[in-house]
Design brief:
This protein has 279 residues and is of the alpha+beta class. It contains twelve helices and eight strands. The strands form two sheets. A four-stranded mixed sheet has the order 2-1-7-8. A four-stranded antiparallel sheet has the order 3-6-5-4.
């Protein structure tokens, strides 16, 4: 393992070779040979079985570059140097693998460490937060549930769910484990009861959509005995990254390495590549 790391870090890669461009997005270089080598060196610190191939490195760096450009183009984030450095400080504070982190930082100094290791992590974090929390991105999913709530106030939630393309179900939540149940009691159920169901009378429909990290939900309490709450719900999943990226202008992705280009063109179903046209 140490030999692999040494080879990746110390192999004679001239400056011109490090700067050679491997991939461009809309004409801007986003992956170079040096960045690929740095990513491979960082991954080698994870030990036997770690993915260190050029293919894996290219895809990881491409995925981060596509997400970064999409977030910049929508005005969601500028990815300033201060943000990247703050993310590096967070990683230092919260790492659960200090030995691995020390190995990575020992091999990649300064900007090389920030670009190959820290920034891709920051990009993924910002993308998740943006897709889950941005009001504009999730306006369509929220509106479907709000429209269903208005429709179902004097009628059937199940029919409203069908009309607006929501997923309908009925279920029971309990404040404590059910006797004889094979399933463990879920603290989530107690939290949901306390926050949403206890506010409702039997037969009452919640006035607003309930938002979680993954969906918007309409809820009607059917009945309760004070220990169990029987209710029906209809939900719309939040817009995911695939649908979000599909709605953006296609990015022109140029792969200058012939072997890597053929490999990328053969990939199907990658959620980031849907935003690109591979050249």
């Amino acid at each position: 393992m140490r030999l692999m790391l040494w080879l990746l870090l110390c192999a004679p890669v001239w400056s011109a070779e490090r700067d050679a461009v491997v991939a461009k997005l809309d004409g801007v270089a986003v992956v170079t040979e040096g960045e690929l080598a740095d990513w491979q060196a960082a991954q080698a610190c994870y030990g036997e079985g770690a993915l260190t191939s050029r293919n894996a490195g290219l895809m990881r760096l491409l995925e981060a570059a596509i997400a970064e450009k999409a977030l910049k183009d929508t005005g969601a984030s500028k990815f300033t140097q201060a943000e990247v450095e703050a993310e590096a400080a967070r990683i230092d504070r919260e790492t659960r693998a200090p030995d691995i982190l020390a190995c990575i930082k020992n091999g990649l100094k300064g900007e090389r460490y920030l670009k190959a290791f820290v920034k891709p992590t920051l990009v993924e974090s910002k993308l998740r937060s943006y897709l889950m929390q941005d009001v504009g991105v999730q306006a369509g999913s929220r509106k479907k549930v709000e429209d269903a709530i208005r429709k179902a106030r004097q009628g059937s939630l199940q029919k409203a769910a069908k009309q607006y393309g929501l997923v309908y179900s009925s279920m029971t939540y309990s404040l404590e484990a059910t006797t004889g149940s094979a399933l463990p009691w879920s603290p989530y159920e107690k939290e949901f009861i306390e926050q949403h169901l206890k506010k409702l009378k039997a037969g009452e429909l919640g006035k607003a959509a309930i938002e979680s990290d993954y969906d918007f939900r309409a809820v009607r309490l059917l009945k309760t005995d004070g220990k169990k709450w029987f209710f029906e719900s209809a939900y719309a999943l939040k817009l995911d990254q695939v649908e979000w990226l599909k709605g953006m202008p296609k990015m022109k992705l140029e792969i200058l390495d012939e072997g890597l280009r053929g490999w990328v063109k053969g990939i199907k179903g990658n959620p980031r590549l849907v935003a690109t046209e591979v050249q």
